[in-house]
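hey so i finally got around to running the thing on that chain from the lab meeting. sorry it took forever, my laptop kept dying and i had to restart like 3 times. anyway pasting the input first so we r on the same page abt which one it is
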Amino acid sequence: PKFVRFERYVLREGFSVESLRGFERATGNDRAAIESVMNHVHLIDIHVDRPATEAQIRYLGRILKEIYEVKLRRDFPECRFIVSFNDEAELDPVDYVLTFIQADQGR
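ok and heres what got predicted. didnt touch it at all, straight out
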């Protein structure tokens, strides 16, 4: 994954500034809420050529969570991040989501 710093945010590369501005207005500039939604990935969207089982989606989510943690720490050593993956049994496949926010929301 590729990440960029934009103003006070750390976001996945390729984000939409227009979407960012809309979320700023909608959340009252709540950085955690904005980063969470702007950085989220539905894991089912990664499996585009064939259906994935729950076990495959959950395994992919756990691995990607570790990758994001390492990559964010390497790219932004001055920041701390919370990387989240809802690794729960029996969710609808579209509900498995990976996202991240900066842990230090005061910056």
